[in-house]
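Take a look at this chain, tokens included, and explain the fold to me:
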Amino acid sequence: MSRATSLRDVALYLRGRLNTRLSQLANARDRTPPVVPAPIDEVIRGVRTPQALSRLLEGRSNPEREHAVARYLRALAVPFAAHRFASAEGAGENFGVDLGTGDRVLLLAAHHDAVPGSPGANDNAASVGLLLQLIERLAVSPPAKLRVRFLFTAAEERGYLGARQYVLDNANVSELAGVLSLELCGIGDSVVVWDAAEETPFLRTVGAALEGVGLRRDQGYHVVGRIPMFGSDHRAFAPLGVPAYGFTLVPSANADALRQFVFSPLRSAFRHLIRRPVPFDTYHTPRDRGGTLEPPALALALRALEAEETAAQRGLARRDEDDDLTLAADAERIDGMGQA
């Protein structure tokens, strides 16, 4: 492990501890009644929309949320890999589902944990519900030239600990075409792709997919650079050279207020003490409940993610075609040299 990596892990550990402590202090003063979790069997047997599936996790403790994800995946009868980890920073279990064939992987991540005192509906049960529904849809007709990996991570609220342990223990970085980590996907009408400081082929694919479902850049979707203070699981992959971005929905009407909020490190650091714009008004609080989730937002997120999978598969197919043309041209050139 390099010195830079070690220092980064220490910083993330301290950040995670601070995040947990601030949430505990702030939520202890909130008198919002606690959420009574829905019975897991009821969720499994019920309607399988992202909003309904968010009830799988809403209001549960982090060990219970972890158990609920594993139980639901077993009920789906799709093969999944469990990755249990333990370190000085904490312990937990990640779950991964691979669908499709091919040597390249599009990784979609959503963390299943929540901060203490929050039901964790928008952060991040809604995102887990989106990926669970997408798994069911893709399982019917898996992609032929691409593997889509659905990664459900633990301990994201502790400085992306689950994702960092996954990268340390499992990730074959060379196979990753790109990573999107889903955060706060249940409220809003505009997609934000963030931590996208530089243009990459994967970022162009992401943008083309969003435009393919009728979203226009800087209106229906936004691409922004690195956001201070806030972060998510994709940041575990980015230092290894993998194109990796956050994927979030926000209300377009709040665009200016959100921009000022997330790009001000000072205001973000004291976010528990100030009035916050939607969707951050319920973020890490007891008010992050299923009733705040918006079905149109979840439908938009699901449509966008399906488009991302299709666009990534087409991009890889074009790459293979280009490689075939290059090989044919080289063969023709070599043949011509031999005849000469």
In short: The chain has a mean pLDDT of 87. The beta strands are 81-87, 90-100, 105-111, 147-153, 176-182, 190-194, 221-223, 244-250. The chain has one domain: 3-339. The first helix runs from residue 3 to 28.
